[in-house]
Design a protein that fits this description.
Blueprint (H helix, E strand, L loop, with lengths): L1 E7 L2 E8 L5 E5 L4 E7 L4 H10 L1 H12 L14 E4 L2 E10 L4 E5 L3 E7 L4 H31 L5 E5 L6 E4 L4 E5 L7 H13 L8 H10 L3 H8 L2
Parallel strand pairs: 2-4, 6-8, 9-11
Antiparallel strand pairs: 1-2, 3-4, 5-6, 7-8, 10-11
Helix pairs in contact: 3-4, 4-6
C-alpha cells in the first residue's frame, strides 16, 4: 500500500493504492478531507477523472460538515459530559494526593481522581488510559465468543486511536485493531465491529460473500452500523 497527494482544481486528495478492484472515494469529517482508494493498476488520470465527475457530490458532502454542530473542545473539568458504553456521564474531577483513577458513580457520574495541579493533558491521559484498559478487558470475551461461531482464529489484537475507521484487519497476520473510541459506544456496536473485522479473516473485500457472512453471523448488523455511524 502506498499513499500520495494529488490536486484536482480546488481539491487536495489523498490517494491510497491498495489491493482492491474498484475506486472508492470518501469525504471525511470533521473538515471534509478527501481520500480515494485505488487499485495499483489504475493511473492518476483515471483517478482525476473520477474526482472531476464527483465535484457536485463532494461539495454537497463538505457543506454538510461545514454546517454540522461541533463538539466543544474538551477541557476535562467538572460538568462536562463523557460517554462510556453508549451512555453519557457527568464528569466530576476530584483532586487528591493519591494515584489517579476513574470511578463510575450511581450510573450518572464519572469521577476522575487526579493529583493536585494536574494539567489538562494529564487529566486527559488518565481518562484515556482508563478507556483503553476497560476496552482491553472486554475484547477477549468478545473474540472468544465469536471465534468458534465464525470459524477463525484471531492470533493478535490491539486497541489504537484511529481517525476514519472503527477497526482494521491484517488477514495475513490474523490480527485485528479496534478503535479506542468504541468504548464510548453501546456494547452491541463494539460487538458489530469485532464481528466485522473477524469476518474479514474469511473474506478480504466488502463484497456479496462478505455481506452473506455478516447476515449469517449477525443478522442485525445493518442497524448496528447505522447507529455507530450516526
Amino acid at each position: 500500500m502506498n499513499t500520495k497527494q494529488i490536486t484536482v482544481g480546488q481539491f487536495s486528495v489523498e490517494v491510497v493504492r491498495k489491493d482492491i478492484k474498484n475506486l472508492r472515494l470518501g469525504v471525511y469529517p470533521p473538515d471534509g478531507r478527501l481520500k480515494i482508494s485505488a487499485p495499483h493498476h489504475v493511473k492518476d488520470d483515471v483517478v482525476r477523472l473520477l474526482i472531476e465527475s464527483k465535484i457536485p457530490w463532494i461539495k454537497t458532502q463538505q457543506a454538510k460538515f461545514t454546517h454540522q454542530e461541533r463538539q466543544t473542545e474538551r477541557e476535562y473539568v467538572s460538568g462536562e459530559t463523557c460517554y462510556f458504553k453508549g451512555q453519557g456521564y457527568l464528569l466530576n474531577v476530584i483532586y487528591h494526593a493519591y494515584a489517579p483513577k476513574v470511578v463510575l458513580r450511581q450510573n450518572t457520574h464519572l469521577d476522575l481522581y487526579v493529583r493536585h495541579g494536574s494539567s489538562l493533558e494529564k487529566r486527559e491521559q488518565v481518562l484515556i488510559a482508563w478507556y483503553r484498559q476497560t476496552l482491553k478487558e472486554k475484547l477477549p470475551e468478545l473474540i472468544d465468543k465469536w471465534q468458534p461461531v465464525i470459524g477463525v482464529t484471531v492470533r493478535d489484537w490491539s486497541v489504537k486511536r484511529m481517525k476514519t475507521k472503527w477497526g482494521t484487519c491484517n488477514i495475513t497476520a490474523g490480527r485485528i485493531w479496534l478503535n479506542l473510541e468504541l468504548i464510548k459506544k453501546p456494547e452491541h456496536c463494539l460487538e458489530y465491529v469485532v464481528v466485522h473485522e473477524m469476518v474479514h479473516l474469511l473474506e478480504r473485500h466488502h463484497n456479496a460473500r462478505f455481506i452473506a457472512y455478516m447476515d449469517k453471523f449477525l443478522p442485525q448488523w445493518r442497524s448496528h452500523k447505522q447507529e455507530l455511524n450516526h
